[in-house]
Amino acid sequence: MFPSLFVILLSVSWKSSSTLAYPSEGFLHCLSLHFANSTSISKLVYTQRNSSFSSVLKSSAQNFRFTTPSTPTPLFIITPLQPSHIQAAIYCSRIHGLHVRTRSGGHDFEGLSYTTANYIVPFVVIDLVNLRSVQVDVEKATAWVESGATIGELYYGIAQKSRTLAFPAGLFSTVGVGGQFSGGGYGPLFRKYGLAADNVIDARLIDAKGRILDRKSMGEDLFWAIRGGGGGSFGIVLAWKLKLVAVPAIVTVFTVSKTLEQNATKLVHRWQSIAHKFPKELLMSIFISSVKSSEADKKMTIKANFSSMFLGSIDELVPLMEERFPEFGLVSDDCLEMSWVEAILSTQGGVQLETLLERHQKTGVSQTFFKAKFDYVKQPIPEMGLEGLWPMFYEEEAKMANIFLVAYGGKMDEIPETEIPFPHRAGIIYSIIYVVDWDENENKNSKRFLNWIRRVYDYMTPYVSNSPREAYVNYKDLQIGSNNMFSCKGSYVQAKIWGHKYFKNNFDRLVYVKTKVDPENFFRHEQSIPPLSCF
């Protein structure tokens, strides 16, 4: 069936019920009628009875908390090869009352791209794994990338054409571009060029009516909303047009570890006051965890790994650090020079460029059972505050816990907070992500770990942003609030609780856009933008 016919079909009320006995039978029958080639259904649609169903569902699930036997699973997984397959899935889901979850890379911290939380409702997963082409135009310094591609596949495509062009997306190569760009997307270049979403210049999206829209046809309001307003609210983005950015042929990286015995507390404290003021070309972050003081000693200490990427040479970086952060004591031997893409590879533990094409490698965040929370900091935490935090990492539940501090400033201070939905700009000196991991055999006692990270989060309350306590939509956290998935009524009031944390005053504009483009709230999940009709 041609795409234009889907638009006509989707104009029919999506509340009509199936004439067949069960939604699953009706849905499959509907797809068989509306797939352009009905014989391809068996290769692209997985039912719960299919022997490959479980492996496909878990193939890119990064948080094993949401792959247990008690986790709600979809009725179907659709792996489209072309836009018309997605249009068919949307149409058939609407008329049979099924929810839709869309998966790009599977890194949603709450698993909302492939499961549901704490309720039972029939749903399908549209997995974009087969839609991941990357087309780079070196002369125009642009690229089109499909939403099923990973950050690594994007970087690989760019590096194949140029070693002095890049894109300011994330650090970890297995993350899907669809999810990351939808929520903003920060990475090693964001102090120089802003977020990934700041550098999106066009997009192709399928809306709730099945129409394929580009920037011109969707209008500036919707184009604004999909660049940082979070995935799963406004439609399914097929592809993104990107403005590529310039990087030097040589960049410099270093990772230097300091323990408490090596003055880590004072260095972290000092870093807070200066890292956001560094030149835009320098990003310096800190990864903090607990370690044994020595192999022979059972005593624990804190280790802070200071990592940096500098768009320039060692000869430029070392004098800069001597001037701005002399206490750190950086020397040339701490540093390595390489190309930008090699610097990305080094964080993945790879040497060959093809490492970037691996979709299932272990990322730097986690690929176990984990819970994460997030904060923004506007004033340096006093040494006393840091010293009060460290003992929490000596507790049994924290043996695989860490926090990651990322300096802001630079270009981020220059972009207005209303430019796109992502509002965390001027005034933010750095962000914190807290992560606690545990093994499968500990999952039966997962509440211990969830309680631990909540206590850490509570402890940090006096030191982080407030009114609202800001958060990042790409690091979803259902503990800060969620929608009522059983009823639209009251969802707007509920959503304001978490919505202002993610989007501040941009939340109301997102609600306005949602009301205009999806008033029936077809695209929804526990933290999707509600329409005003849900008030």
TrEMBL record:
Residue runs in coiled coils: none
Cellular location(s): Secreted, Cell wall
Annotated signal sequence range: 1-21
Record domain FAD-binding PCMH-type: where: 70-247
UniProt keyword Nuclease present: no
The organism's place on the tree of life at top rank: Eukaryota
Cofactor needs: FAD
Molecular functions per Gene Ontology: FAD binding; oxidoreductase activity
Keywords, in A-Z order: Cell wall, Disulfide bond, FAD, Flavoprotein, Glycoprotein, Nucleotide-binding, Oxidoreductase, Secreted, Signal
KW Glycoprotein (keyword) present: yes
Pfam families with a match to the protein in the record: BBE, FAD_binding_4
Family note: Belongs to the oxygen-dependent FAD-linked oxidoreductase family.
Protein name: FAD-binding PCMH-type domain-containing protein
UniProt source species: Gossypium harknessii
